[in-house]
Amino acid sequence: GLKDQAHHVLVRLLGCCPKRSYDVLEAFNAAEVFEAQTVRPCYMTELLHDMSLDKYVAHVEDFLRKHGGLTHEHHISHFEMVDMLTLRNNNNIIQAIFCATTQRMYMLAPSEERPAYTSSEALGRWEPSWENRHPRNPTILWQREYKDVARVYRCYGTQLMA
């Protein structure tokens, strides 16, 4: 809905204008502290997560230009974290990144190594905030041309994309 679209615009704006990030985050805190407006902590967590992910998208776009055959006139149009059933590793479910560009589709795997600066309390799943300062390159699991796609399924809840 409208909230989701506004959230997406805010994330993109802050990704394009990082000097404004502090002012926007300060406005959220000021609204909560001085104006008694409620800002859900889960929303702030989601906003920071999506800002980190948007920053990582720019890094991945450069990576795909160097290593994935993405040409300079093309760009990433969709970038989403997914759980994927893999035939490797005894049919385990792995965390992956579905990346659609204006040229082709990619399934990427984020770096499996945990950075030394992550806390011991952090969950075992990759977080885009790990890539804020020194982004690491993903691994290309596969890439497909759009003409090779027969069907696309959008799954909800506990359903998986295979």
Describe what this molecule looks like in 3D.
This protein has helices at 2-16, 21-33, 41-67, and strands at 76-85, 93-101, 104-109, 139-145. It is an alpha+beta fold and 162 residues long. Strands 1-2-3-4 form a 4-stranded antiparallel β-sheet, with no helix packed on it. The longest helix has 27 residues, at 41-67. The chain starts with a helix and ends in a 17-residue tail after the last strand.
SSE arrangement, N to C: HHHEEEE
- Could you give the order of strands across the largest sheet? 1-2-3-4
Helix content: 25-40%
Low-confidence stretches: none
Q: Name the structural class.
A: alpha+beta
Q: Tally of extended strands?
A: 4
Q: What is the overall pLDDT average?
A: 85
Number of helices: 3
Distance between the termini: 27 Å
Strand content: 15-25%
The radius of gyration computed from the alpha-carbon positions, rounded to a whole number of angstroms, is: 18 Å
Basic shape: globular
Biggest beta-sheet profile:
4 strands, antiparallel
Task: Put the structure in a nutshell.
The protein is an alpha+beta fold and 162 residues long.
Which labels suit this protein?
about 160 residues, alpha+beta, 3 helices, globular
Write the layout of secondary structure elements.
Blueprint: H1 2-16, H2 21-33, H3 41-67, E1 76-85, E2 93-101, E3 104-109, E4 139-145
Antiparallel strand pairs: 1-2, 2-3, 3-4
Helix pairs in contact: 1-3
